[in-house]
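Box 4.2: Ligand-aware structure prediction
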Amino acid sequence: MRMNPVVTQKISESISDYNKDITLLWHGGEPLACGIKHFSLLIEPFKKLKNTGILDHTIQTNGTLINENWCEFFISHNFNVGISIDGPIWANKNRIDKKGQETYARIIKGIQYLKDNNINFTVIAVVSKESLTRAKEIYEFFCMLKCSSVGFNIEEKENVNKREICDNNMVTNFWSDLFDFWKANPVIEVREFSQILSRIELLSTEEDKEPVNLQYSIYPSITYNGDIVLLSPEFLGAKAPQYDDFIVGNINNESLLSIINRMNNISYVDDYVNGIKKCAMDCEYFSFCGGGWASNKFFELGSINTTETVFCRNYKQRPLEAVVNQL
Ligand code: SF4
């Protein structure tokens, strides 16, 4: 389903008085599938905000539809471009199109268009069980690809994805090997290592004696029809009768700021905050992690008001250990 430009008009109106930097992240499904003409209509309402310099467009795409015209579009509207690709061809066998065809060759072709047009791009890669023992190949691939940064998502159990990696030793070794290779050749940014190293630096300074202290992001996510969920885009389309399927309102009826102002009365946000409080009390990783993601807690454990998940062990605890053990 395509988003109606009326929805983006409403979004634009509802954030027009927001005086902080805003990143609009276009993702979910394949955002380029709506075509350039329609996408141009969607971003039109944000022109004024964009010109003031407080709003940025970022897109996360599988890259298969990128061509010269899309490159022109990205350049003229100053888009930050993120590509979803998991590594060399063998690592992408789960990236198939609706017909069940592998998409690797088309992703690489799309990336080549970006390179030919000097458009910087970042990468998000899913690390499957098959990739865990091949950190060197994966890292070398992304160096060769010349992305500016890569973020690794260890495959997780979330919404429709029921596969999950549970082998902690393999995950520990992956992060450890990856950190080794990155240290030896740090030509691209690895998102997770940058976050950890900057946090270590911050915690070591005199100014930052306080722990993370229950700071969390609410990440409003809006569907094609204007429905809004908070905390995690993975909640879009999820079934949770106790939380009204996580939908907290619709942009056509209420402004985003109004919803954010009443978020303390939203039960799953409350559950999430209580879960973070437990994390703060119980977890030695809290000052680095801040309490994890609501969606992982919900999809793994069936509760948001909780603490440790496989995801946080694999994605927060293991990379931190890998970095700290090798510093
Ligand atoms: S690592 Fe896990 S248990 Fe620890 S603070 Fe993060 S989410 Fe909570």
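In the box above, the bound molecule is iron/sulfur cluster. Residues 279, 283, 285-286, 289, 291-292, 307-308, 312, 316-317 surround iron/sulfur cluster (CB under 6 Å).
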